[in-house]
Amino acid sequence: MNRPPPPLSLQPLRQRALLVTGAMLLVAIACMLYAGMTGSVEVGLADVPAALRELFEGRPQTLAASLLELRAGRATVAFATGAALALAGVLMQALLRNPLADPYILGISAGASVGALAALMLMAAMATVELAAVAGAIVVSLLLYALARQDLRGGAGHGGGTSTLLLTGVVISSLCVALITLMLSIAPEGRLRTMVFWMIGDVAGAPVRLLPWLVLGAALLYALRNARGMNVLALHAEAAVTLGVRVGSLRRGLFLVSGILTASAVTSAGSIGFVGLIVPHACRFAFGPDHRVLIPAAVLAGGSFLVLCDTLARTIVAPQQLPVGAVTAIIGAPIFLYQLHRLRRP
Questions:
Q1: What is the spatial distance between Cα 84 and Cα 130, in angstroms, rounded to a whole number?
Q2: Left, alpha or beta for 188 (phi > 0: left; psi -120 to 50: alpha)?
Q3: SS3 of residue 262 by DSSP
Q4: DSSP structural state of residue 270
Q5: Where residue 251 falls among pLDDT bands split at 50, 70, 90?
Q6: Residue 268 host element (H or E)
Q7: In this structure, are residues 143 and 216 in contact, taking their beta carbons and an 8 Å threshold?
Q8: Axis crossing angle, helix 126-147 with helix 108-121, rounded to the nearest 10
C-alpha cells in the first residue's frame, strides 16, 4: 500500500532544504579539495583522481597522494572545528534571540582557555592540556547555570528574556580574560609562544580524532529535531508555550549543547573567533531564518570557511604559518562591521 504524500505545504520547504544543503555540500567538498591541492608544493588537478585512489586503497606512494594525506588531516580538523563553532553560533543566537550573538559570549571558551593555558604554563602533556580545557569549560558552564538558572527555566512569563544569562556570561568572561592575562605575564619564556598560539587559535599539529565528529553529529541531530521549536522561540517567544514549545527545556538544551560544541572546538584548536558570529548570520541573510534550512547550511558553511582560512594561514606567508584565529579575525571583523551596519540601516 502506497504511503500518502506529505502535505503540500511541506514539499517546497523540504525541496529548498535539500537544494541548499546539496549546494553547500558541493562547496564543502570543493574547499577540502582546494586545501589538499594548495601549499608550498602544488598538487595538480589532473593528479588528484589517482592520488585519491591510492588513499582509498591505503597505499599512498606518489608525492601527490602523500601531500593530500598530510593536508587532509589538517583540513578535517579545521572543518569539524568550524562546523561546531557555526552550529554553536546558531544555537546561541536562538537562545539569546540575537542574530549577532557569539558562541564565546557566555565565557565558556574563556573558561576552557584558562584551563588549557594553566596546563601549558605547567608544561603538561598535550592530553593533560585538553583535559584541562574541558574541565575549564565545564566549571564555567556549571557556574553559569547556577547563577542564571531562572533565565534557562523561563517560560512565557519570562518573555524570552535572557538578560541575567547574558550579563553573567560577560562578567565571567571578563574574569577569565583577566586570569589569562595574568598567566601570560608570568609564564616561562619558553612556553609563551605556544600559549599565545593556542589562545589565538591554530589547527597546526592538532590530531585527527573521532570525538569532535561524534559531538558535532549528536549536536546536529538535536538541533534538527528542535528546529521548529527554535523557529517559534525566535519569532514568537511570548506565545511559545501556548504553541506547544517547552521553553524551559529548550533553553536548557540550547545552552548545554552550544556549550559542549564550544568546548569541543576550543579543545581541538584553541580559541578561534568570528566563525560562530558571522557564518550563521551570513547564512540567515542568504537562506532565510528558518532553522530547518539554516542549521545544515551553517554547519557546512562554517566548516568550509575555516578550511579556507586555514589554507590561507599556511600559505599566505609561506614557509611561515599564521595562527588561523588571526586570519578569521582579519576576515571576520570587516564582515561583522558590514553586517552590523546593515542591521542599523533604517
A1: 17
A2: beta
A3: helix
A4: -
A5: confident
A6: helix 247-269
A7: no
A8: 150
d(CA 202, CA 266): 10
> Would you tell me how many other CB atoms lie within 10 Å of the CB of residue 183?
19
Cell 601549558 sits at which residue?
Answer: 120
Sorted by sequence, the CB contacts under 8 Å of residue 262 that are 6+ apart come out as 84, 85, 88, 103, 104, 108, 109, 112, 137, 276
Neighbouring C-alpha atoms within 13 Å toward the C-beta of 305: 31
Q: What is the pTM of this model?
A: 0.88
pLDDT above 60 (res 317): yes
Among 239, 171, 340, 76, CA closest to 163:
171
Angle at which helix 211-225 crosses helix 291-315, to 10 degrees, equals 150
What's the mean per-residue pLDDT of the chain? 83
Are residues 278 and 335 in contact, defined by beta-carbon separation less than 8 angstroms? yes
Sign of CA dihedral 192, 123, 261, 306: positive
In whole angstroms, give the CA distance from residue 164 to residue 166: 5
The CA-based dihedral angle spanning residues 232, 233, 237, 241, taken in that order and rounded to the nearest 10 degrees = 70
Please report the sign of the dihedral spanned by the C-alpha atoms of residue 236, residue 237, residue 242, residue 245: positive
Q: Please name which of 222, 240, 270, 245 lies closest in space to residue 87, comparing C-alpha atoms.
A: 222
Residues 6+ apart with CB under 8 A from 215: 84, 260, 261, 264
The three grid cell numbers given for residue 121, joined into one nine-digit string: 604554563
Would you put residue 325 in left (φ > 0), alpha (ψ -120 to 50) or beta? alpha
